[in-house]
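Why predict the complex rather than its parts? Because the way molecules touch one another can change local conformation, and only a joint prediction can capture that. The input here totals 654 residues.
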Amino acid sequence: VASDDLTLADVGEFALIDVLAQVFVASARPSVEVGLGDDAAVLAAPSGRLVVAVDQMIEGRHFRRDWSSAHDVGRKAAARAMSDIAAMGAVPTALLVALAAPGSLPLAWARELAEGLATEASVVGASVVGGDTAESPTLVVSVTAFGDSGDRALVTRSGARPGDGVFLAGRLGRAAAGLTVLSRGHRQPKSVVAAHRTPEPPYAAGVAAAAASATSMIDLSDGLLADARHIATASGVVIDLDRSLLGGDDDVEAMARNFGLDVWEWVLVGGEDYGLLATFAPEAVVPAAFRPIGRVSELREGREGPVLVDGATHRGAGGHEHFMPPS
Amino acid sequence: VASDDLTLADVGEFALIDVLAQVFVASARPSVEVGLGDDAAVLAAPSGRLVVAVDQMIEGRHFRRDWSSAHDVGRKAAARAMSDIAAMGAVPTALLVALAAPGSLPLAWARELAEGLATEASVVGASVVGGDTAESPTLVVSVTAFGDSGDRALVTRSGARPGDGVFLAGRLGRAAAGLTVLSRGHRQPKSVVAAHRTPEPPYAAGVAAAAASATSMIDLSDGLLADARHIATASGVVIDLDRSLLGGDDDVEAMARNFGLDVWEWVLVGGEDYGLLATFAPEAVVPAAFRPIGRVSELREGREGPVLVDGATHRGAGGHEHFMPPS
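Output of the joint prediction:
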């Protein structure tokens, strides 16, 4: 009945919920005991525990509707939340989606958002099992992701030890390059624009890292230096990054030259690449998805840190932080 | 270091997270394997499943900062999400909180919000185990609640059968009365204003209903008629409410008379009372928190329904629905 020209104000909340539920039910998985349409969903937790994380995408802050399609926003919202699950070494199994939206939002946009969420969830065999909708002047997509860790030990941020190697799965600086491209009115190169619109977290690498006894892990959302600092602080260590091991992305380097920008700001400070940063003990058999980028050393009084690049603190912007004016 | 005059823009995201974490860590419970400060939290799920629900509170839509304190908003945000868990017959155990807020928000407001969330969680022995913060023009508090159902069967919306009794735990119309009082510039009677600001879901009644084999259950958020319709539709039955069993709240009736309003709009249509509506088979021993308000009958071709009051469809507003202009 609902045509794609209709807005949420035309059709109302219950019709919106019907449209979203149609998309989500079509992609539902059997691990869900009670799914959409009740007060709450019921998730199976065969290992006796569940890994949970929530992440928000806010229009104007994390996405623009003229830069990303609804499908892109859905994929990215799911990817960001599931990336947190992967960073614990768990497999994402289910999502809850809270959508706060203005009445002027086209119903078709909401449907495509749902399709994007379901598509990204299906990459790892997960599904959307419930959610909430409400009217809001600002469009906010909030995703709670659930994950199962099986019998594996979970990988926190706090287990890095001096002598461990520092490893990376994924690429650096591409999402920041893509955002720069879009903010300057361009739409290509497509590879970096896609890195901003629809990051592809290396989900399987997270599980592999846990199976290989990674000592710590985090996903790269705030930027390499900021996220490395989270591990270093939680673990009480220093993380030494080796600049010669961080570069090598020719596309990104060429773009930075073209724009007259310092590629290291993208690589070290640019956020939202959604790779995985992990540490492994020297004797570990590190999964193939990871490459070495530095090492863990001892925190010592009077020494710089807790994150060093070629032995020194990086002098530049400090990474993205919400609420603060750009530094 | 941070004075209470500071805003989020003054202190930044990491300081905000520190302040929230201080509040939440102080109220943490041992059922959490990994709590605040990592990529994700890890919840114990000893029964092999977890009940999950998400709910949003949006400034200007669900609350106003001049009508409710930050502590009130926190309590209500937690109560709304945990009410959904109770409506399945489960015990809330943990919360994730996503806060989207403008940079101008006072840090003290955020701290009091966290205290309100922790306070309401502690009512049932739950705690806040993680969350997300982001900058947003609109203030949105989104809460994901987790619950444990032990060995009890979960109570969905779809199990009501003809012949069952319809029962209510909690009071009707008080939150709508409180909202009317506030919207007309008054601050009392305090009892109804409190019902709007800080609803008190009958959490234990939800568990008791499940233990007594309730055939269906829902929490009263959209209004009695709308929520009864959710059960009736999901169960394929008619719900007959008995008007003589619904009233009897003298405070609310006196207020409606003073305002020259129809008390039945508050009782039948007013939302956000956060009581529990449940159905029980005739032979059930209904928990003391519930009182009878009607019965379940068969859905028949050509008959009105699916919700009747004294045998007829209620002619009036249809209950609250997001995105639609008031009817």
